[in-house]
Amino acid sequence: MSLIQAENLTKIYGSGDTAVTALGHVNLKVETGEFVAVMGPSGCGKSTLLHLLGGLDRPSEGGVSIDGTAIADMKDDDLTKLRRRKMGFIFQFFNLIPVLNAVENASLPVTLDGVKPPEAKKRAAEWLTRFGLGDRLTSRPDQLSGGQQQRVAVARALVAEPALILADEPTGNLDTRSGDEIAALLRQVTKEYGRTVVMVTHDPRIAAYADRIIFLKDGKIVDDTQLERKGAVETITDKMKEIGD
């Protein structure tokens, strides 16, 4: 069974003459351990797709199953618990709490889920250490570089040991070097730790770290490409030119 199954996934905003179809009748499967990038022109439905997969928004039609559990009609409380335990989220802006240090920020998801603070901080420290921040556990966000802050955000996404990581432009607020480091880290998350990553990006260089690229245009999947490591950036760039704006 695929970790993600989306069937006839549709999102319409507004109604009548003012209705806008942000996503139209999308069918998608993502397997455990895949690193999938979602690309396409601005306004094509990339973030809408990610939000529907993560249960952050409800579809107008169709549905999503995560690890065999249908989420579209779940009660809010049940959906919150599922997100907290089976999904991790990474955003363009790091969304760290300024008054908390790195380990406190990274431990938040499991602390909110009832894990006692010492155990939560231990788990967070393990992930932060894996990501090269073992010497910055007590640093606040304003004492960290942008790349380091995003590493904290990745550790926070993984601390509950979720099966799925959803990343919305995770390198969009970083310089080139830091962006490459985060993309490589997300690839490591799939290859070494067996997590599934679905990442929205506009950058072919960052998308080239993925195993597979899904191209959207006007709310529909127009191409689904398995990547070879050699020449991946060129392949993606050519596909984007084909799709156009």
Explain what this protein looks like in three dimensions.
This protein has helices spanning 46-53, 76-86, 102-112, 117-130, 146-158, 176-191, 204-207, 232-243; strands spanning 4-13, 20-30, 35-39, 61-66, 69-70, 87-91, 164-168, 196-200, 212-217, 220-226. By secondary structure, the protein is an alpha/beta fold. The chain has a single domain (32-47, 75-243), classed as P-loop containing nucleotide triphosphate hydrolases (Rossmann fold), CATH 3.40.50.300. The strands form two sheets. It has a six-stranded mixed sheet, sandwiched between helices. Strands 2-1-4-5 form a four-stranded antiparallel sheet, with helices on one face. A hairpin with a 2-residue loop joins strand 9 and strand 10. Helix 3 (102-112) crosses helix 4 (117-130) and helix 3 packs parallel to helix 5. The longest helix is centred in the last third of the chain and has 16 residues, at 176-191. It is globular and about 50 Å long. The model has no long low-confidence stretch (mean pLDDT 90).
